[in-house]
Design goal:
Elements: E1 2-5, H1 9-21, E2 29-32, H2 36-46, E3 49-50, H3 54-60, E4 63-66, H4 73-79, E5 90-93, H5 100-106, E6 112-117, E7 127-133, H6 139-150, E8 153-157, H7 163-171, H8 173-190, H9 195-216, H10 220-227, H11 233-243, H12 246-266
Parallel strand pairs: 1-2, 1-4, 2-3, 4-5, 5-6, 7-8
Antiparallel strand pairs: 6-7
Bound molecules: NADP nicotinamide-adenine-dinucleotide phosphate.
């Protein structure tokens, strides 16, 4: 049912997520990578099927996830053998920066494509993945593809025109968050906390705070206001962050990453 080509960082985590979530049986997942060791390790651990090659993945499955590096897509389509019933196939590309129009061009337009942009936390089952598609797919297919991405985090359907903003807000942002955790820990270390404890306190606080926001669905400003007691420690820190331009730096960071992605897409 689901075939995955490329079992590197992303492919492997996606296979683990799909398999561990129970979305479908391991025996309905077929995988292939040019490194046989990667396939053998996953198939013996998860009970997924090792496919002979890329063509077998296409022929044996309806949903095909392509998780090779972006520069490997063209070669992959060129070297594919005969694929039966191409128009029944739903091909999901996670290749960063590759537009649906480019996928159609390099593959002779017969497949029905989804383009997805997952992010690094897919590796721990907490990814944020944007998913876009053309109109030639059914509602059921859209739902199923979303459920694939939900199995290792959260999937969200967006218009393809938003993919550059997705790079700014979720694709590149794990780096910004690592920087925030590191900086918070530096402050605590400066005031005497051991470094390993400082990372744990900062990271757990970020994770818990994000969970609160997602679960309560309340406005982040309101939640912030609630923890700022009049004349207390938190509003003191908030003033320092405002004086130091934290919010405007973050807005500029998201805009810059988005613009860089737009620029790269024009080449
Ligand atoms: N990492 C991220 O945070 C992230 C986020 C969003 C999207 N993506 C996208 O995800 C895709 C995969 O990234 P990754 O970091 O997982 O790459 P990766 O670790 O290099 O994994 C790709 C795997 O596919 C294998 N491969 C290459 N050509 C193949 C072919 N024709 N058939 C079967 N296997 C093949 C590679 O083998 P070799 O190593 O021998 O070439 C490697 O094992 C990329 O297109 C990237 O743009 C990544």
């Amino acid at each position: 049912m689901i075939g995955v080509i490329g079992c590197g960082n992303m492919g492997k985590s996606m296979i683990e997520g799909i398999s561990n979530s129970g979305l479908i049986e391991g025996s309905q997942i077929g995988i292939f990578d040019i490194n046989k060791d990667k396939v053998d390790e996953l198939s013996s651990r998860l009970g997924v099927i090792s496919e002979a090659d890329e063509t077998a993945v296409f022929n044996n499955h309806k949903y095909i996830i392509i998780a090779v590096k972006p520069n490997g897509f063209e070669k992959l389509f060129k070297t594919l053998g005969k694929v039966e019933n191409k128009s029944d196939k739903v091909v999901i590309s996670i290749g960063a920066g590759i537009k649906i129009a480019s996928l159609e061009k390099m593959s002779d337009k017969n497949y029905r494509f989804f383009r997805a942009m997952p992010n690094l936390p897919v590796l721990v089952g907490e990814g944020m993945s944007a998913i876009s598609h053309r109109e030639n797919v059914s509602e059921g297919e859209v739902e199923f593809v979303k459920s694939i991405f939900d199995s290792f985090g959260k999937g969200d359907i967006v218009d393809e025109s938003l993919m550059d903003v997705v790079v700014g807000i979720s694709g590149s942002s794990p780096a910004y968050v690592f920087m925030i955790i590191e900086a918070m820990a530096d402050g605590a270390v400066l005031k005497g906390m051991p470094r390993d404890k400082a990372y744990k306190y900062a990271a757990q606080t970020l994770m818990g705070t994000a969970k609160m926001l997602l679960e309560s669905k309340e406005h982040p400003g309101l939640l912030k206001d609630r923890v700022c007691s009049p004349g207390g420690t938190t509003i003191e820190a908030v003033k320092v962050l405002e004086d130091s331009g934290l919010r405007s730096a973050m807005i500029k960071a998201v805009v810059s990453a988005t613009e860089k992605s737009e620029e790269m897409g024009k080449k």
